[in-house]
């Protein structure tokens, strides 16, 4: 029995309950993943991007894969791209909670800028793939192989830049050095951490699957369309761990962690498309319609504005947040309006 057989209120209840599970378990998963990253010896930047980024992105990946497997390619694409725009907007939301100065001023770092540029490079690949003939090899589009390869090379570059940067942002009274989140799992054995990681990952994975099933039912019952349901509802619900983690990070002054986790996690949203392509009939990029391409282009624009803010480093602005945060929030509102029109 599919969830579409239930009344609308019950489907909405399942969606809300799954979103709450993702927010609560996802944040705990991020803390455990951060502790494991510190203990692997892989290097803080690479290990943090892999463990924390993958952990907070797990429910979204499950949603995209499960919906693509069931033939709802538009929902899978919308979930990935909607997560991108939502999480970028979350940086502006976190800026509202940081009262000392504009978040982009305080968090400006070469690592953050590199992550943003890497994200923009990755996001151009599915856009190009969607515009060209849909060729596949053993049912997989070449872009789905290229995206994780470029991401791996980008992580290697990021590690080199972090260890031996060729330039630094100017230090000001409001600049905050890269601060790692306090180890809330200090004293816990590695075995216990891995068990916790597995437990929280299992909860968020099941919740991500429930989000996908509820989204499919909502699409059938409301007629809003796969792209709109995926972009606005599933994308936001699956991105809640990034929002909570970013706000918590700026509250303790770990501003670089807040910005880096969100921008780094966005790269995993692009890789959702690669994962979904493995389970989709044909090419997932062929399912990208004009609205999806508009969302992707707005995500590129939002990221570019954010990087310009980190380069300009305005200390104060209207409403005590920077011009870039206001612009990002405005662009996100535009993306939602265009999807729902």
TrEMBL record:
InterPro entries (UniProt xref): K/Na/Ca-exchanger (IPR004481), NaCa_Exmemb (IPR004837), NCX_ion-bd_dom_sf (IPR044880)
Pfam families: Na_Ca_ex (PF01699)
Parts of the chain that traverse the membrane: 6-30, 42-62, 74-98, 110-129, 135-158, 193-211, 294-311, 323-340
Main location: membrane
Sodium/calcium exchanger membrane region domain sequence ranges: 12-129, 198-340
GO cellular component, as recorded: plasma membrane
Keywords: Membrane, Transmembrane, Transmembrane helix
GO biological process, one term: intracellular calcium ion homeostasis
Domain of life: Bacteria
Gene Ontology MF annotations: calcium channel activity; calcium, potassium:sodium antiporter activity
Leader sequence segment: none
Subcellular location per the Swiss-Prot or TrEMBL entry: Membrane
Keyword field contains Ribosomal protein: no
Coiled-coil ranges (or none): none
Membrane topology: Multi-pass membrane protein
Name under which the protein is recorded: Cation:H+ antiporter
């Amino acid at each position: 029995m599919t969830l579409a057989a239930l009344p609308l209120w019950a489907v909405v209840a399942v969606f809300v309950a799954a979103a709450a599970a993702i927010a609560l378990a996802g944040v705990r998963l991020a803390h455990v993943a951060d502790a494991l990253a510190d203990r692997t010896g892989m290097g803080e930047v690479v290990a943090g991007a892999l463990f924390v980024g993958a952990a907070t992105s797990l429910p979204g990946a499950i949603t995209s894969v499960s919906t693509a497997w069931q033939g709802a390619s538009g929902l899978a694409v919308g979930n990935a791209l909607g997560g991108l725009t939502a999480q970028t907007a979350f940086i502006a939301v976190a800026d509202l909670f940081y009262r000392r100065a504009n978040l982009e001023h305080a968090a400006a770092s070469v690592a953050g800028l590199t992550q943003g540029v890497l994200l923009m490079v990755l996001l151009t690949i599915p856009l190009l793939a969607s515009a060209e003939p849909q060729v596949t090899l053993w049912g997989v589009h070449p872009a789905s192989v290229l995206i994780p390869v470029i991401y791996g090379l980008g992580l290697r570059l990021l590690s080199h830049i972090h260890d031996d940067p060729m330039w630094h942002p100017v230090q000001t009274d409001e600049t905050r050095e890269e601060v790692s989140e306090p180890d809330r799992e200090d004293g816990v054995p590695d075995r216990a951490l891995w068990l916790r990681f597995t437990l929280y990952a299992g909860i968020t994975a099941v919740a991500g699957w429930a989000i996908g099933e509820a989204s499919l039912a909502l699409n059938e019952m409301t007629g809003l369309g796969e792209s709109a349901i995926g972009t606005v509802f599933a994308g936001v619900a699956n991105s809640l761990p990034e929002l909570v983690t970013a706000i918590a990070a700026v509250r303790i002054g770990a501003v670089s962690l807040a910005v880096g986790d969100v921008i780094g996690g966005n790269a995993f949203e692009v890789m959702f498309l690669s994962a979904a392509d493995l389970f989709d009939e044909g090419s997932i990029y062929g399912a990208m319609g004009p609205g999806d391409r508009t969302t992707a282009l707005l995500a590129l624009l939002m990221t570019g504005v954010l990087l310009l803010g980190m380069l300009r480093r305005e200390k104060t602005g209207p409403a005590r947040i920077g011009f870039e945060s206001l612009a990002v929030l405005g662009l996100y509102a535009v993306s939602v309006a265009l999807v729902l029109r």
